[in-house]
Amino acid sequence: MPEWQGLVPVGSDHVSAAPVAISPEKSKSIKRHYRRSMGNAALFATLAAQQAVVESGLAAEILGNGRAGCIISSTIGSSSEVYESTKAVIEHRFNDLSACQFFRIVSHSSAFNVANFFGINGVQLSPCSACASSLQSIGLAYEQILAGRQELFLAGGSDEVTPIVLGSFRHLYALADSDELPPEELSRPFDARRCGLVCGEGAGILVVEEYEHARRRQAPVLAEIIGYATNCTGTQISQSDSASIEACMRLALADAQIAPDDVDYVSAHATSTVAGDREEAAAIRAVFGDRVPVSSVKGQLGHTLGASGGIETAAVLAMMRHGVILPNANLAAVAEDCAGLDLPAAPRQQPVRTVVKNCIAFGGVNATLIMRSAEAGA
Amino acid sequence: MTRDRLIELINQIFVDQFELEPEELTPEKRIFEDFALDSLDIVDLITGLQRKFGISLRDNKDVQQIRTLQDIYDLVEKLARDNPDLIAKLPE
Prior knowledge:
heterodimer, A: alpha/beta, Peroxisomal Thiolase, Chain A, domain 1, 2 domains, 5-stranded mixed β-sheet, 4-stranded mixed β-sheet, B: mainly alpha, Non-ribosomal Peptide Synthetase Peptidyl Carrier Protein, Chain A, 55% helix, globular
Protein backbone atom coordinates (compact mmCIF):
# COMPACT_ATOMS: atom_id res chain seq x y z
CA MET A 1 0.00 0.00 0.00
CA PRO A 2 1.51 3.37 -0.93
CA GLU A 3 2.23 5.66 2.00
CA TRP A 4 -0.25 8.30 0.84
CA GLN A 5 -3.20 5.92 1.19
CA GLY A 6 -2.73 6.14 4.95
CA LEU A 7 -3.13 9.89 4.64
CA VAL A 8 -6.56 9.79 3.02
CA PRO A 9 -8.79 11.63 5.50
CA VAL A 10 -11.60 9.45 6.72
CA GLY A 11 -13.63 11.86 8.80
CA SER A 12 -14.59 10.92 12.33
CA ASP A 13 -14.07 7.18 11.93
CA HIS A 14 -16.12 7.43 8.74
CA VAL A 15 -14.80 6.66 5.30
CA SER A 16 -15.15 9.68 3.05
CA ALA A 17 -13.50 7.97 0.11
CA ALA A 18 -14.10 4.83 -1.93
CA PRO A 19 -10.82 3.83 -3.60
CA VAL A 20 -10.81 1.26 -6.39
CA ALA A 21 -8.73 -1.88 -5.86
CA ILE A 22 -7.22 -3.10 -9.12
CA SER A 23 -5.49 -6.46 -8.86
CA PRO A 24 -1.88 -6.77 -10.11
CA GLU A 25 -3.15 -9.33 -12.65
CA LYS A 26 -5.62 -6.78 -14.02
CA SER A 27 -2.93 -4.09 -14.23
CA LYS A 28 -0.52 -6.47 -15.92
CA SER A 29 -3.09 -7.25 -18.59
CA ILE A 30 -1.74 -3.97 -20.03
CA LYS A 31 1.78 -4.48 -21.35
CA ARG A 32 4.60 -2.78 -19.43
CA HIS A 33 5.51 -0.68 -22.45
CA TYR A 34 2.09 1.04 -22.17
CA ARG A 35 1.59 0.71 -18.40
CA ARG A 36 4.90 2.40 -17.45
CA SER A 37 3.56 5.87 -18.31
CA MET A 38 0.22 5.40 -16.53
CA GLY A 39 -0.72 6.63 -13.10
CA ASN A 40 -3.91 5.17 -11.68
CA ALA A 41 -6.14 7.65 -13.55
CA ALA A 42 -4.68 6.64 -16.92
CA LEU A 43 -4.85 2.97 -15.94
CA PHE A 44 -8.56 3.34 -15.05
CA ALA A 45 -9.15 5.16 -18.35
CA THR A 46 -7.41 2.48 -20.40
CA LEU A 47 -9.30 -0.37 -18.74
CA ALA A 48 -12.61 1.47 -19.26
CA ALA A 49 -11.71 2.31 -22.86
CA GLN A 50 -10.98 -1.37 -23.52
CA GLN A 51 -14.54 -2.20 -22.45
CA ALA A 52 -15.96 0.57 -24.65
CA VAL A 53 -13.94 -0.53 -27.70
CA VAL A 54 -15.01 -4.15 -27.27
CA GLU A 55 -18.68 -3.31 -26.68
CA SER A 56 -18.70 -1.00 -29.71
CA GLY A 57 -16.92 -3.54 -31.92
CA LEU A 58 -14.27 -1.02 -32.96
CA ALA A 59 -11.51 -2.43 -35.13
CA ALA A 60 -7.88 -1.31 -34.81
CA GLU A 61 -7.88 -0.10 -38.44
CA ILE A 62 -10.64 2.41 -37.66
CA LEU A 63 -8.92 3.70 -34.52
CA GLY A 64 -5.67 4.21 -36.43
CA ASN A 65 -6.96 5.75 -39.66
CA GLY A 66 -6.55 9.39 -38.61
CA ARG A 67 -10.31 9.97 -38.41
CA ALA A 68 -10.58 8.75 -34.81
CA GLY A 69 -9.62 10.89 -31.83
CA CYS A 70 -9.34 10.75 -28.09
CA ILE A 71 -10.67 13.31 -25.59
CA ILE A 72 -10.17 12.22 -21.99
CA SER A 73 -9.56 14.39 -18.96
CA SER A 74 -9.19 14.35 -15.19
CA THR A 75 -8.96 16.81 -12.33
CA ILE A 76 -5.16 16.53 -12.01
CA GLY A 77 -3.38 14.03 -14.33
CA SER A 78 -2.49 11.45 -11.70
CA SER A 79 -2.60 13.06 -8.26
CA SER A 80 -1.03 10.01 -6.57
CA GLU A 81 1.98 10.36 -8.89
CA VAL A 82 2.15 14.10 -8.15
CA TYR A 83 2.39 13.21 -4.47
CA GLU A 84 4.99 10.45 -4.91
CA SER A 85 7.27 12.37 -7.25
CA THR A 86 7.10 15.66 -5.34
CA LYS A 87 8.02 13.81 -2.15
CA ALA A 88 10.95 12.06 -3.88
CA VAL A 89 12.28 15.36 -5.27
CA ILE A 90 11.97 17.17 -1.91
CA GLU A 91 13.79 14.29 -0.22
CA HIS A 92 16.47 14.25 -2.95
CA ARG A 93 15.65 10.63 -3.85
CA PHE A 94 16.19 11.19 -7.57
CA ASN A 95 16.99 7.53 -8.15
CA ASP A 96 13.43 6.72 -7.10
CA LEU A 97 11.97 8.81 -9.92
CA SER A 98 10.79 6.95 -12.99
CA ALA A 99 11.68 8.23 -16.45
CA CYS A 100 7.91 8.17 -17.00
CA GLN A 101 7.06 10.32 -13.97
CA PHE A 102 6.26 13.36 -16.09
CA PHE A 103 4.04 11.31 -18.38
CA ARG A 104 2.03 10.05 -15.41
CA ILE A 105 1.57 13.51 -13.88
CA VAL A 106 0.62 15.80 -16.74
CA SER A 107 -2.98 16.86 -17.11
CA HIS A 108 -3.52 15.03 -20.43
CA SER A 109 -1.96 11.77 -19.20
CA SER A 110 -5.15 9.71 -19.57
CA ALA A 111 -5.78 11.05 -23.08
CA PHE A 112 -2.35 10.24 -24.56
CA ASN A 113 -2.03 6.95 -22.72
CA VAL A 114 -5.34 5.73 -24.17
CA ALA A 115 -4.43 7.10 -27.62
CA ASN A 116 -1.04 5.38 -27.46
CA PHE A 117 -2.55 2.10 -26.27
CA PHE A 118 -5.05 1.92 -29.12
CA GLY A 119 -2.92 3.56 -31.83
CA ILE A 120 -5.35 6.47 -32.15
CA ASN A 121 -3.69 9.13 -34.34
CA GLY A 122 -6.36 11.78 -34.85
CA VAL A 123 -7.29 14.69 -32.57
CA GLN A 124 -6.15 14.33 -28.95
CA LEU A 125 -7.55 16.79 -26.38
CA SER A 126 -7.96 17.00 -22.64
CA PRO A 127 -10.24 19.78 -21.40
CA CYS A 128 -9.42 19.48 -17.70
CA SER A 129 -12.04 21.32 -15.67
CA ALA A 130 -12.20 19.44 -12.36
CA CYS A 131 -15.60 17.79 -11.92
CA ALA A 132 -16.91 18.88 -15.33
CA SER A 133 -13.87 17.39 -17.12
CA SER A 134 -15.42 14.30 -18.63
CA LEU A 135 -18.76 15.85 -19.61
CA GLN A 136 -16.84 18.61 -21.36
CA SER A 137 -14.78 15.89 -23.09
CA ILE A 138 -17.92 14.19 -24.38
CA GLY A 139 -19.42 17.56 -25.40
CA LEU A 140 -16.23 18.53 -27.19
CA ALA A 141 -16.20 15.21 -29.04
CA TYR A 142 -19.79 15.91 -30.15
CA GLU A 143 -18.81 19.39 -31.38
CA GLN A 144 -15.73 18.08 -33.23
CA ILE A 145 -17.84 15.48 -35.01
CA LEU A 146 -20.52 18.05 -35.88
CA ALA A 147 -17.76 20.21 -37.37
CA GLY A 148 -16.66 17.25 -39.51
CA ARG A 149 -13.17 17.09 -38.01
CA GLN A 150 -13.32 13.43 -36.95
CA GLU A 151 -15.60 10.42 -37.40
CA LEU A 152 -15.40 9.20 -33.82
CA PHE A 153 -13.82 9.67 -30.41
CA LEU A 154 -13.08 7.74 -27.30
CA ALA A 155 -14.31 10.39 -24.87
CA GLY A 156 -14.77 10.69 -21.13
CA GLY A 157 -12.75 11.04 -17.96
CA SER A 158 -10.89 9.39 -15.15
CA ASP A 159 -9.84 10.31 -11.64
CA GLU A 160 -8.19 9.20 -8.42
CA VAL A 161 -8.83 9.55 -4.71
CA THR A 162 -5.72 10.97 -3.00
CA PRO A 163 -4.92 13.33 -0.13
CA ILE A 164 -4.31 16.22 -2.56
CA VAL A 165 -7.96 16.15 -3.59
CA LEU A 166 -9.56 14.93 -0.38
CA GLY A 167 -7.50 17.19 1.87
CA SER A 168 -8.51 20.19 -0.23
CA PHE A 169 -12.21 19.30 -0.10
CA ARG A 170 -12.02 18.64 3.60
CA HIS A 171 -10.36 21.98 4.23
CA LEU A 172 -13.29 23.65 2.46
CA TYR A 173 -15.84 21.74 4.62
CA ALA A 174 -17.03 20.04 1.42
CA LEU A 175 -16.23 16.46 2.51
CA ALA A 176 -18.96 14.46 4.25
CA ASP A 177 -18.27 14.08 7.95
CA SER A 178 -20.90 12.97 10.43
CA ASP A 179 -20.95 11.01 13.65
CA GLU A 180 -24.61 10.17 13.14
CA LEU A 181 -24.54 8.46 9.74
CA PRO A 182 -22.87 5.19 8.71
CA PRO A 183 -20.36 5.49 5.84
CA GLU A 184 -22.72 4.06 3.20
CA GLU A 185 -25.30 6.75 4.02
CA LEU A 186 -22.96 9.75 3.96
CA SER A 187 -23.53 10.58 0.30
CA ARG A 188 -27.19 11.70 0.20
CA PRO A 189 -27.97 14.17 -2.60
CA PHE A 190 -30.92 16.55 -1.98
CA ASP A 191 -31.48 15.14 1.52
CA ALA A 192 -32.13 17.30 4.59
CA ARG A 193 -29.20 15.68 6.41
CA ARG A 194 -26.67 15.94 3.58
CA CYS A 195 -23.33 17.15 4.89
CA GLY A 196 -20.86 16.96 2.01
CA LEU A 197 -19.53 14.65 -0.65
CA VAL A 198 -17.93 11.22 -0.56
CA CYS A 199 -15.13 10.79 -3.09
CA GLY A 200 -14.98 7.86 -5.49
CA GLU A 201 -12.55 7.10 -8.28
CA GLY A 202 -12.59 5.35 -11.63
CA ALA A 203 -13.20 6.15 -15.28
CA GLY A 204 -16.08 6.49 -17.70
CA ILE A 205 -15.25 6.31 -21.40
CA LEU A 206 -17.73 6.36 -24.29
CA VAL A 207 -17.50 5.92 -28.04
CA VAL A 208 -18.90 9.15 -29.53
CA GLU A 209 -19.37 8.62 -33.25
CA GLU A 210 -20.85 10.25 -36.31
CA TYR A 211 -24.24 8.61 -36.82
CA GLU A 212 -23.89 7.39 -40.41
CA HIS A 213 -20.37 6.12 -39.68
CA ALA A 214 -21.74 4.07 -36.80
CA ARG A 215 -24.60 2.75 -38.97
CA ARG A 216 -22.27 1.73 -41.78
CA ARG A 217 -20.14 -0.40 -39.50
CA GLN A 218 -23.27 -1.74 -37.76
CA ALA A 219 -22.17 -0.50 -34.34
CA PRO A 220 -24.63 -0.81 -31.45
CA VAL A 221 -26.11 2.71 -31.16
CA LEU A 222 -27.15 3.33 -27.54
CA ALA A 223 -28.21 6.96 -27.83
CA GLU A 224 -27.86 10.11 -29.86
CA ILE A 225 -26.32 13.28 -28.45
CA ILE A 226 -28.74 16.00 -29.49
CA GLY A 227 -27.52 19.02 -27.53
CA TYR A 228 -24.64 20.36 -25.49
CA ALA A 229 -23.66 23.55 -23.76
CA THR A 230 -21.02 24.73 -21.33
CA ASN A 231 -20.64 28.09 -19.60
CA CYS A 232 -19.20 29.59 -16.43
CA THR A 233 -20.26 32.00 -13.74
CA GLY A 234 -17.46 34.50 -14.22
CA THR A 235 -18.02 35.59 -10.64
CA GLN A 236 -17.29 32.58 -8.45
CA ILE A 237 -14.62 29.90 -8.29
CA SER A 238 -15.98 27.75 -5.47
CA GLN A 239 -19.74 28.29 -5.24
CA SER A 240 -22.29 26.86 -7.65
CA ASP A 241 -24.62 29.49 -9.02
CA SER A 242 -28.23 28.65 -9.88
CA ALA A 243 -28.57 31.37 -12.51
CA SER A 244 -25.59 30.14 -14.53
CA ILE A 245 -26.61 26.47 -14.17
CA GLU A 246 -30.08 27.39 -15.43
CA ALA A 247 -28.54 29.34 -18.32
CA CYS A 248 -26.38 26.34 -19.24
CA MET A 249 -29.38 23.96 -19.30
CA ARG A 250 -31.38 26.43 -21.41
CA LEU A 251 -28.49 26.78 -23.87
CA ALA A 252 -28.29 22.99 -24.20
CA LEU A 253 -32.07 22.72 -24.71
CA ALA A 254 -31.82 25.38 -27.44
CA ASP A 255 -28.94 23.50 -29.05
CA ALA A 256 -31.08 20.34 -29.03
CA GLN A 257 -34.07 22.32 -30.31
CA ILE A 258 -36.34 20.81 -27.68
CA ALA A 259 -38.50 22.22 -24.89
CA PRO A 260 -38.26 21.33 -21.18
CA ASP A 261 -41.47 19.31 -21.60
CA ASP A 262 -39.68 16.99 -24.03
CA VAL A 263 -37.31 15.79 -21.31
CA ASP A 264 -37.99 12.53 -19.42
CA TYR A 265 -35.25 12.66 -16.82
CA VAL A 266 -32.55 14.95 -15.41
CA SER A 267 -29.32 13.27 -14.28
CA ALA A 268 -28.14 15.84 -11.76
CA HIS A 269 -24.59 16.62 -10.74
CA ALA A 270 -25.76 16.88 -7.08
CA THR A 271 -22.74 15.89 -4.99
CA SER A 272 -24.50 15.99 -1.61
CA THR A 273 -22.92 19.27 -0.55
CA VAL A 274 -25.24 21.75 1.15
CA ALA A 275 -24.71 24.69 -1.23
CA GLY A 276 -24.16 22.75 -4.47
CA ASP A 277 -27.38 20.72 -4.28
CA ARG A 278 -29.36 23.83 -3.29
CA GLU A 279 -28.14 25.82 -6.31
CA GLU A 280 -28.64 23.00 -8.82
CA ALA A 281 -32.10 22.21 -7.38
CA ALA A 282 -33.11 25.86 -7.84
CA ALA A 283 -31.87 25.85 -11.45
CA ILE A 284 -33.68 22.58 -12.31
CA ARG A 285 -36.86 23.85 -10.62
CA ALA A 286 -36.71 27.04 -12.70
CA VAL A 287 -36.41 25.10 -15.97
CA PHE A 288 -38.48 21.95 -15.36
CA GLY A 289 -40.63 22.61 -12.26
CA ASP A 290 -41.66 19.34 -10.63
CA ARG A 291 -42.63 17.61 -13.88
CA VAL A 292 -39.38 15.78 -14.63
CA PRO A 293 -37.79 13.10 -12.40
CA VAL A 294 -34.38 14.16 -11.10
CA SER A 295 -31.72 11.98 -9.49
CA SER A 296 -28.00 11.86 -8.83
CA VAL A 297 -26.17 8.54 -8.71
CA LYS A 298 -23.60 10.00 -6.34
CA GLY A 299 -25.55 8.46 -3.48
CA GLN A 300 -24.62 5.06 -4.93
CA LEU A 301 -21.17 5.77 -6.41
CA GLY A 302 -19.84 8.77 -4.52
CA HIS A 303 -18.37 11.68 -6.42
CA THR A 304 -15.89 10.38 -8.98
CA LEU A 305 -14.69 13.93 -9.71
CA GLY A 306 -13.31 14.33 -13.23
CA ALA A 307 -14.66 10.88 -14.11
CA SER A 308 -18.20 11.62 -12.92
CA GLY A 309 -19.58 12.94 -16.22
CA GLY A 310 -18.38 9.87 -18.13
CA ILE A 311 -19.45 7.34 -15.52
CA GLU A 312 -22.85 8.98 -14.99
CA THR A 313 -23.47 9.29 -18.74
CA ALA A 314 -22.81 5.54 -18.97
CA ALA A 315 -25.34 5.11 -16.13
CA VAL A 316 -27.87 7.17 -18.12
CA LEU A 317 -27.37 4.87 -21.14
CA ALA A 318 -28.04 1.86 -18.89
CA MET A 319 -31.20 3.55 -17.57
CA MET A 320 -32.37 4.11 -21.16
CA ARG A 321 -31.70 0.48 -22.03
CA HIS A 322 -33.53 -0.91 -19.00
CA GLY A 323 -36.34 1.67 -18.85
CA VAL A 324 -35.70 2.49 -15.22
CA ILE A 325 -34.60 5.62 -13.37
CA LEU A 326 -32.06 5.05 -10.63
CA PRO A 327 -33.20 6.68 -7.39
CA ASN A 328 -31.51 9.21 -5.15
CA ALA A 329 -29.87 6.80 -2.72
CA ASN A 330 -30.15 7.74 0.96
CA LEU A 331 -32.87 10.32 0.27
CA ALA A 332 -34.90 10.00 3.48
CA ALA A 333 -36.33 13.51 3.75
CA VAL A 334 -36.08 16.05 0.93
CA ALA A 335 -34.33 19.18 2.12
CA GLU A 336 -36.45 22.30 2.25
CA ASP A 337 -34.06 24.09 -0.13
CA CYS A 338 -34.35 21.24 -2.66
CA ALA A 339 -38.16 20.96 -2.52
CA GLY A 340 -40.41 21.41 -5.53
CA LEU A 341 -38.67 18.75 -7.63
CA ASP A 342 -39.69 15.19 -8.51
CA LEU A 343 -36.92 13.30 -6.65
CA PRO A 344 -37.40 9.50 -6.87
CA ALA A 345 -36.28 7.70 -3.70
CA ALA A 346 -36.89 4.25 -5.24
CA PRO A 347 -36.20 2.83 -8.73
CA ARG A 348 -38.87 4.00 -11.14
CA GLN A 349 -39.88 1.99 -14.19
CA GLN A 350 -40.61 4.33 -17.06
CA PRO A 351 -39.39 5.02 -20.59
CA VAL A 352 -36.15 7.04 -20.44
CA ARG A 353 -35.93 8.61 -23.89
CA THR A 354 -34.64 12.15 -23.58
CA VAL A 355 -32.20 12.98 -20.81
CA VAL A 356 -30.47 16.10 -19.53
CA LYS A 357 -27.12 15.40 -17.82
CA ASN A 358 -25.46 18.12 -15.73
CA CYS A 359 -21.94 18.53 -14.41
CA ILE A 360 -20.80 21.45 -12.28
CA ALA A 361 -17.21 22.17 -11.28
CA PHE A 362 -14.92 24.35 -9.22
CA GLY A 363 -13.91 27.30 -11.30
CA GLY A 364 -17.56 28.19 -11.88
CA VAL A 365 -17.87 25.70 -14.75
CA ASN A 366 -21.19 24.19 -15.85
CA ALA A 367 -21.81 21.62 -18.59
CA THR A 368 -25.05 20.07 -19.84
CA LEU A 369 -25.36 17.21 -22.31
CA ILE A 370 -28.69 16.14 -23.81
CA MET A 371 -29.17 12.61 -25.14
CA ARG A 372 -32.01 10.79 -26.88
CA SER A 373 -32.30 7.03 -26.61
CA ALA A 374 -31.79 4.80 -29.64
CA GLU A 375 -35.39 3.61 -29.38
CA ALA A 376 -36.67 7.19 -29.46
CA GLY A 377 -35.17 7.77 -32.88
CA ALA A 378 -31.40 7.83 -32.64
CA MET B 1 32.22 -14.92 -6.96
CA THR B 2 31.96 -11.11 -6.96
CA ARG B 3 31.37 -11.07 -10.70
CA ASP B 4 28.56 -13.62 -10.28
CA ARG B 5 27.01 -11.46 -7.60
CA LEU B 6 27.24 -8.34 -9.80
CA ILE B 7 25.57 -10.20 -12.67
CA GLU B 8 22.85 -11.45 -10.34
CA LEU B 9 22.12 -7.92 -9.11
CA ILE B 10 22.13 -6.45 -12.63
CA ASN B 11 19.81 -9.20 -13.87
CA GLN B 12 17.50 -8.46 -10.94
CA ILE B 13 17.01 -4.92 -12.32
CA PHE B 14 15.91 -6.36 -15.66
CA VAL B 15 13.48 -8.73 -13.97
CA ASP B 16 12.03 -6.17 -11.53
CA GLN B 17 11.93 -3.06 -13.70
CA PHE B 18 11.49 -4.43 -17.19
CA GLU B 19 9.50 -7.56 -16.31
CA LEU B 20 11.80 -9.88 -18.29
CA GLU B 21 12.10 -13.57 -17.44
CA PRO B 22 15.43 -14.60 -15.81
CA GLU B 23 16.06 -17.24 -18.51
CA GLU B 24 16.00 -14.52 -21.20
CA LEU B 25 18.97 -12.77 -19.61
CA THR B 26 21.98 -14.11 -21.47
CA PRO B 27 25.06 -11.90 -21.93
CA GLU B 28 24.91 -11.58 -25.71
CA LYS B 29 21.37 -10.16 -25.72
CA ARG B 30 21.03 -6.68 -27.24
CA ILE B 31 19.06 -4.46 -24.91
CA PHE B 32 17.27 -2.44 -27.62
CA GLU B 33 16.64 -5.12 -30.24
CA ASP B 34 16.21 -8.24 -28.09
CA PHE B 35 14.62 -6.75 -24.98
CA ALA B 36 12.74 -3.97 -26.83
CA LEU B 37 13.91 -1.32 -24.39
CA ASP B 38 13.83 2.31 -25.54
CA SER B 39 15.33 5.63 -24.48
CA LEU B 40 12.92 6.02 -21.53
CA ASP B 41 13.88 2.56 -20.30
CA ILE B 42 17.57 3.45 -20.51
CA VAL B 43 16.95 6.36 -18.11
CA ASP B 44 15.33 3.88 -15.72
CA LEU B 45 18.20 1.42 -16.25
CA ILE B 46 20.69 4.14 -15.25
CA THR B 47 18.74 5.10 -12.10
CA GLY B 48 18.26 1.40 -11.30
CA LEU B 49 22.02 0.79 -11.49
CA GLN B 50 22.73 3.94 -9.48
CA ARG B 51 20.28 2.83 -6.78
CA LYS B 52 21.53 -0.75 -6.69
CA PHE B 53 25.27 -0.01 -6.60
CA GLY B 54 25.38 3.46 -5.02
CA ILE B 55 27.23 4.89 -8.01
CA SER B 56 26.76 7.88 -10.31
CA LEU B 57 26.30 7.00 -13.97
CA ARG B 58 24.33 9.90 -15.43
CA ASP B 59 27.39 11.64 -16.86
CA ASN B 60 29.45 8.51 -17.50
CA LYS B 61 30.35 8.48 -21.21
CA ASP B 62 30.72 4.67 -21.24
CA VAL B 63 26.98 4.32 -20.64
CA GLN B 64 26.34 5.59 -24.16
CA GLN B 65 28.32 2.65 -25.57
CA ILE B 66 26.16 -0.01 -23.93
CA ARG B 67 24.56 -2.33 -26.49
CA THR B 68 24.37 -5.77 -24.83
CA LEU B 69 23.84 -7.16 -21.38
CA GLN B 70 27.51 -8.15 -21.43
CA ASP B 71 28.41 -4.46 -21.93
CA ILE B 72 26.56 -3.63 -18.69
CA TYR B 73 28.29 -6.44 -16.78
CA ASP B 74 31.66 -5.17 -18.04
CA LEU B 75 30.90 -1.55 -17.18
CA VAL B 76 29.81 -2.31 -13.63
CA GLU B 77 32.78 -4.65 -13.14
CA LYS B 78 35.12 -1.89 -14.30
CA LEU B 79 33.49 0.58 -11.92
CA ALA B 80 33.85 -1.96 -9.12
CA ARG B 81 37.59 -2.32 -9.84
CA ASP B 82 38.01 1.46 -9.70
CA ASN B 83 35.89 1.78 -6.59
CA PRO B 84 36.41 -0.94 -3.94
CA ASP B 85 33.60 0.61 -1.87
CA LEU B 86 31.12 -0.61 -4.48
CA ILE B 87 31.93 -4.24 -3.65
CA ALA B 88 32.06 -3.60 0.08
CA LYS B 89 28.58 -2.06 0.03
CA LEU B 90 26.86 -4.56 -2.26
CA PRO B 91 23.30 -5.24 -1.13
CA GLU B 92 22.72 -8.60 0.57
